[in-house]
UniProtKB/TrEMBL annotation:
Region (Disordered): 1-35
Organism from which the protein derives: Pyrus ussuriensis x Pyrus communis
Biased amino acid composition, Basic and acidic residues: 26-35
Keyword annotations of the record: Cell cycle, Cell division, Cyclin, Mitosis
Family affiliation: Belongs to the cyclin family. Cyclin AB subfamily.
Annotated protein name in UniProt: B-like cyclin
Domain Cyclin C-terminal residues, every copy: 314-431
Pfam families in the record: Cyclin_C, Cyclin_N
Subunit and interaction comment: Interacts with the CDC2 protein kinase to form a serine/threonine kinase holoenzyme complex also known as maturation promoting factor (MPF). The cyclin subunit imparts substrate specificity to the complex.
Taxonomic classification: Eukaryota, Viridiplantae, Streptophyta, Embryophyta, Tracheophyta
Domain Cyclin-like: start-end pairs: 221-305, 318-400
Annotated function: Essential for the control of the cell cycle at the G2/M (mitosis) transition.
GO molecular function ontology, one term from the record: cyclin-dependent protein serine/threonine kinase regulator activity
Length: 440
């Protein structure tokens, strides 16, 4: 059964299989930020006022500190229930008769103002049922909790400010069981550890007496075209290159056998990744019958024994999938990222960077290329574990490869990504501003 990576939601031509462009968003959509409700301003503990005379209460009222009502706080006030009791001490202090009438008609609205300066809307309540804080106020009762509410509002505004500072988003989708979100962190932690053991020495070619890095570049550039012609999956290409380098690091190969190593590595990668595997005769034909079927099978035995059947290695592709989700990538960004990373497959000098760094640098370079300014989010930094400064060296090398991709001797990758199927990604203008070393 194919993995999730083998079955993306992208609708592509039936006769071609290019980089994965998942149809759904990479980042789980986050709903509105539901903040905890404010304290219930009506839940006031009542206790008997020690002073029977309301006028005496008023004389001992301390002046409340005046705080300006912000627009946000005014909106909260407008949301108070209509039955909120707005009572002023001066109203019932100057109208003792209203206190006596309260037992006959409880909470009856009154419109008399002691100062006779106008009419106010208020309700009459019993003085003995007012708590000490109520005696201290000549403002609506719900303003007793002004300080607590304002503190809550300040906290809410701080939360909003933090949201504006590029929050770290969750790149896993819990709705899809194939994403195994319960284990995804452990899986990529394992990839981080094993990528060191599955990588090769950046100087292994020095131990090869009959081949060099230029021959390796020619081989991989040709294999990229073979991969395109056979319509194979992306995982197959990256695993093929990994098998070639690991085999060349451990075994000396003569020049005329180098192409045989390449086609055999692709055959093994197909058996590991593909659902429908090309037959041996296909690779014999694609190599212009330079080798026989027996040669391919003999080389296959030699490679699997040399590599000890270890094909489960984290290639650049597995990190690309994860990091593109974190970057909330779109189709254009994905295609450009894969264009840059395939340029790096051809270059022997890029072996000194681990697969995770190559993937992160390709996405960073692609983002800068499309936006025309340096761009690396907190979310991408969190999931890749690489800061912008750590990626700059690798990213600048990718920019130089992009600059010479069209005019170089090996143009297989450029021609592949100059087609409609790959969104003309190779036509994008290189992010040359990244080469300015004064930009830090």
């Amino acid at each position: 059964m194919g993995s999730k990576e083998n079955n993306p939601a992208l609708v592509r031509p039936s006769n071609f299989q290019g980089p994965r462009m998942g149809g759904s968003k990479f980042v789980k959509e986050v709903g509105p930020n539901h903040r905890p409700a404010l304290r219930d301003v009506h839940n006031i503990t009542r206790k008997e006022c020690p002073r029977k005379d309301a006028a005496e209460c008023k004389k001992n009222v301390p002046d409340l500190p005046h705080r300006p009502v912000t627009r946000r706080f005014a909106q909260l006030l407008q949301q108070q229930p209509k039955e909120t009791k707005e009572v002023t001490v001066s109203s019932f202090a100057a109208n003792p008769k209203a206190v006596q009438d309260v037992n006959q008609e409880a909470k009856k609205p009154s419109s008399y103002d002691a100062n006779s300066s106008g009419l106010v809307d208020c309700e009459i309540i019993d003085v003995e049922n007012i708590e000490d804080e109520a005696c201290d106020a000549h403002v609506p009762m719900f303003v007793k909790h002004t300080e607590a509410m304002l503190d809550e509002i300040d906290r809410m505004e701080e939360d909003e400010n933090l949201e504006d500072e590029d929050p770290i988003m969750d790149s896993s989708s819990s709705k899809d069981p194939l994403n195994v979100v319960e284990y995804i962190d452990d899986i990529y932690a394992h990839y981080r550890k094993s990528e060191k053991s599955s990588s090769v020495s950046p100087s292994y070619m020095a131990h090869q007496p009959d081949i060099n890095e230029k021959m390796r570049a020619i081989l991989i550039d040709w294999l990229i075209e073979v991969h395109y012609k056979f319509e194979l999956m992306d995982e197959t290409l990256f695993l093929t290159v990994n098998l070639i380098d690991r085999f060349l690091e451990s075994q000396m190969v003569i020049r005329k056998k180098l192409q045989l190593v390449g086609v055999t590595a692709m055959l093994l990668a197909c058996k590991y990744e593909e659902v429908s595997v090309p037959i041996v005769e296909d690779f014999v034909l694609i190599s212009d019958k330079a080798y026989s079927q027996k040669d391919v099978l003999d080389m296959e035995k030699s490679m699997v024994n040399s590599l000890q059947f270890n094909f489960s290695v984290p290639t650049v592709y597995v990190f690309m999938r994860r990091f593109l989700k974190a970057a909330q990538s779109e189709k254009k960004l994905e295609l450009l990222s894969f264009f840059l990373i395939e340029l790096c497959l051809v270059e022997y000098e890029m072996l000194r960077f681990p697969p995770s760094m190559l993937a992160a640098a390709a996405i960073y370079t692609a983002q800068c290329t499309l936006s025309r300014f340096k761009q690396w989010s907190k979310t991408s930094e969190w999931y890749t574990n690489y800061s912008e400064d750590e990626l700059l060296e690798c990213s600048r090398m990718m920019v130089t490869f992009h600059q010479k991709a069209e005019t170089a001797k090996l143009t297989g990758v450029h021609r592949k990504y100059s087609t409609w199927k790959f969104g003309y990604a190779a036509k994008a203008q290189p992010a040359e501003f990244l080469l300015d070393h004064s930009l830090r």
